[in-house]
Amino acid sequence: YVPKVACSNWKRVLKVLDGALESVDVKGKMDHKSDLVFLGDMKPEEISYRLKHYYKFIFVRNPIERLLSAYRNKFGEIKEYQQKYGVEIIRRYRKNGGNSAGDDVSFSEFLQYLLDEDVERMNEHWMPIYNLCQPCAVRYDFIGSYEQLHADANHVLEHIQSPSSIRFPERQAWYKPVTAETLHYYLCSTPQRLIKELLPKYILDFSLFAYPLPNVTSEFCRQ
């Protein structure tokens, strides 16, 4: 699964299909581990069989929007991430930041942290999709996008002959989407150098999934 690409709702669907959850409309945050079986829990021959015979799909998202979504969610709302990552980021990149609780990390500081971080050691919420899902090693049958989420999700559900009563859930009310205006604000408030230097780490996500590179030109930012 790809964090910040509707993976919570996909887990709801899978749990309902498996009988572990009554409805996709159950309110509240998703338990991302219980009632789910992961490839890593299986024996090598079981993994090989599933990779060869099962229907395999992933959902992708514009890399810079995914990073912004992770930043706003984890550093704006989740104390565990503020304490584990936020405090460290501020300690590294801000003078006299030793007293911070990690809840005031700037987007620029977050991007600088990503620039200095080894991709293979990144947290799954901001690790490139290429590294998370190995699209050149796994023959995915379908690649859906966050931008066409419901149409692509319906395609998957129809393909696996899901019961018609099970539909892809609506976005949770508490979720704050990344709008074009929000993206514009953050991109244009961030040093262009940071964005340009970070792009190589995510370039395979941009190129493999056909996303345009972020526009940070002066003309775009004046709009």
Q: What is the topology, as strand order, of the major beta sheet?
A: 1-2
DSSP strand tally: 2
Number of distinct helices: 10
What separation lies between the terminal Cα atoms?
Answer: 36 Å
Order of helices and strands: HHEHHHHEHHHH
- Average residue pLDDT: 92
Give the percentage of residues in beta strands: under 5%
Q: What's the helical proportion of residues?
A: 40-55%
**Shape annotation:** globular
Work out the radius of gyration: 19 Å
Structural class: mainly alpha
Quick one: biggest sheet? 2 strands, parallel
| Structural domain count | 1
* Poorly predicted tracts of residues: none
Could you explain the architecture of this structure?
With 223 residues, the protein is mainly alpha-helical. It has one domain (7-222). It has 10 helices and 2 strands. The protein has helices at 7-17, 44-53, 63-77, 79-93, 107-116, 129-133, 149-159, 180-188, 192-208, 218-222; strands at 57-60, 142-145. It has a two-stranded parallel sheet. The longest helix has 17 residues, at 192-208.
Give the tags.
10 helices; 223 residues; mainly alpha; globular; 48% helix; carbohydrate metabolism; Carbohydrate sulfotransferase; P-loop_NTPase
Describe the structure concisely for a colleague:
By secondary structure, this protein is mostly helical. It has 10 helices and 2 strands. It has one domain.
Write the layout of secondary structure elements.
Layout: H1 7-17, H2 44-53, E1 57-60, H3 63-77, H4 79-93, H5 107-116, H6 129-133, E2 142-145, H7 149-159, H8 180-188, H9 192-208, H10 218-222
Parallel strand pairs: 1-2
Helix pairs in contact: 3-4, 4-5, 5-9
Main location: Golgi
InterPro entries: Carb_sulfotrans_8-10 (IPR018011), P-loop_NTPase (IPR027417), Sulfotransferase (IPR005331)
GO molecular function: sulfotransferase activity
